[in-house]
Amino acid sequence: MIMYKILKNQDNDLLLVIEPQDCEPDGPMFIYDGGDTALLFRDWDSNIRLNAISPETTPELMNAKTIYVVEMSGDAIAREYAAPVRIVRDVKSMMM
To answer: Distance from the CA of 92 to the CA of which of 29, 31, 40, 71 falls in 20 to 30 A?
Structure first.
């Protein structure tokens, strides 16, 4: 299970903070359906399932155009990038 946090910065941008991944993202996308699960598509070989999304976060995610992903190694930023938010009908049907 991956550890993550969804936060807002001082500009009210949504940030997804995760552990560093092994590869660079290629066409990342945050896929969400308004429920308690989301999928961070990083590339065709690297996807991250995010479980237990807080109901308080749902309206923010449903209205977001972009989420900024920050991969943290301790207190250091290993990688950061923007991922467009795509709202789908059923995100779990897209997971294997």
So the answer is: 71
CB-based contacts of 9, cutoff 8 Å, min separation 6: 15, 68
Q: pLDDT band for position 1 (50/70/90)?
A: low
Q: Which amino acid is at 3?
A: M
CB atoms inside a 10 Å sphere around CB 18 = 19
Rounded mean pLDDT, 18-31? 96
Enumerate the domain spans of the chain.
4-94
d(CA 59, CA 51): 16
Q: Give the Cα separation of 6 and 46 in Å (integer).
A: 20
pTM of the shown model: 0.93
Q: What is the CA radius of gyration of the chain?
A: 12
Does the pLDDT of residue 95 top 90, yes or no? no
Hey, which residues does 30 pair with through a beta bridge? Answer: 40, 85
